[in-house]
Design a protein that fits this description.
This protein is of the alpha/beta class. The protein has helices at 14-28, 44-50, 69-92, 107-115, 130-143, 152-159, 184-193, 215-228, 245-257, 274-277, 297-304, 335-346, 349-366, 369-389; strands at 2-6, 32-38, 54-58, 97-100, 119-123, 146-149, 168-170, 202-206, 233-237, 265-269, 283-286, 309-312, 327-330.
């Protein structure tokens, strides 16, 4: 079986990482993957190719969060020719099942429909506003042969009481539990690399430096934590893109205003080896703003590395950050609450050890990439069966 995994934006993110983690186990199950991404700068295509995944970069315009008219006009004007071209590519590459890996843009779904191929439509976050969600979900109802939701909370948010006509499945991002492990050696090496003392508490976060991740709330929580833990350090792991230059400047202002010495904020930039950095954390924060996430992959990777999590109650996050078991969940946009929950973990070694062990166990049993790949192989078969029965 050959699948086409279509992601409508070029910056490496959750849907790209999802494919990267399950491509090898899928291949072992007889499923070959082709990644299709926009032919724009962004890094996703190169990272997937470097991992040995076949990639097709093709024109894929998308809607923009802007009031400027021109990008929206270009999206509408180019939609039909880009869908027709994508449908031809699906046929030429002998694709059996199409995975539309984001809610929008809808090119993959429309191309699958035109090519007469089964379609699995994945809904991975809550970011699209209602005026986008409503027409998009109408297309899901019309086009999809199976719909996947990244967490039960997303299924409830998008579907509510009106059931979808096709089969549905809930999933979570996959983790390579052989790469993401508890590692005292990596902990020491990472701390030495960034000149962090071995005995200093470290609180960190992973994600692209964009407003969706709520980095300003991480920095404000850091200010509260520094006042009670003056030896603490903070790691910010994530890519910094020109499109978010203004936001990046705002974060610098937040750091200056936090009261934390600037050298205690370690900005690593983009990393393709997050598994070497996470073990240096004592606690990982997730500070995303409302209407943003599904289930952030970095949180599940932290669990695999035995790192307790303090996270905001957004979308499906509370489904894997189990209160008092693998971490703590607090209301969004409240840095003081983030700091208080983090302080609870830092100040109790036995609690931290218990949270670490439970997180690792959950990652291995629930979120492992091999388990995820088996689920997807079954989903592809169910989508083909449903498509054939239409």
């Amino acid at each position: 079986m050959r699948i086409a995994w279509i992601v409508g934006y070029p910056v490496y993110g959750g849907p790209h990482n999802h494919l990267l983690r399950i491509a090898a186990p899928l291949a072992a199950l007889g499923v070959e993957a082709l990644a299709i991404v926009p032919d724009e700068p962004g890094g996703a295509a190169d990272r997937l190719r470097d991992a040995g995944i076949a990639v097709l970069a093709t024109p894929l315009h998308r809607m923009r969060a802007t009031r400027r008219v021109r990008p929206h006009v270009e999206f509408v004007a180019r939609l039909a020719p880009e869908v027709f071209g994508l449908a031809r590519a699906l046929i030429e590459h002998e694709v059996d099942v199409v995975v539309q890996a984001t809610l929008v843009p809808p090119h993959g779904a429309l191309a699958a429909r035109r090519a007469g191929l089964p379609l699995v439509w994945q809904i991975v976050d809550t970011r699209p506003p209602p005026f986008v969600q409503r027409p998009a979900m109408a297309m899901v109802r019309h086009c999809a042969d199976l719909t996947m939701f990244c967490g039960h909370a997303l299924a409830e948010s998008y579907v509510g009481r009106r059931a979808l006509p096709m089969p549905t499945e809930v999933f979570y991002p996959p983790v390579d539990t052989e790469r993401f492990v508890v590692s005292p050696e990596r902990r020491r090496a990472t701390r030495a690399r960034y000149r962090i003392p071995d005995d200093a508490p470290v609180v960190g976060m992973v994600g692209n430096l964009n407003p969706q991740k709520g980095w300003e709330y991480f920095i404000r929580a850091a200010g509260h934590l520094y006042r009670s833990h003056p030896k603490i350090w903070f790691m910010l792991v994530g890519a910094d893109y020109e499109v978010h230059r203004t936001y990046r400047q705002r974060l610098e202002e937040e750091m200056r205003a936090s009261g934390v010495p600037r050298d205690r904020f370690v900005l690593t930039g983009e990393s393709t080896e997050v598994e070497t950095l996470l073990p240096a954390f004592d606690v990982k924060l997730i500070t995303s703003v409302p209407r943003s996430e599904g289930a952030p992959t970095s949180g599940l990777e932290a669990l695999a590395c035995g790192v307790p999590i303090v996270a905001v109650d957004v979308a499906a996050i509370s489904e894997f950050v189990r209160e008092g078991v693998t971490g703590y969940v607090v209301p969004p946009l409240q840095p003081r609450a983030l700091a208080e929950a983090t302080r609870t973990i830092l100040d109790d070694h036995d609690l931290r050890a218990a949270l670490s062990a439970a997180g690792r166990k959950d990652a291995y049993e629930r979120y492992d990439a091999v388990v995820n790949a088996r689920l997807h192989r079954d989903v592809f078969e169910r989508a083909r069966d449903y498509h054939g029965s239409r």
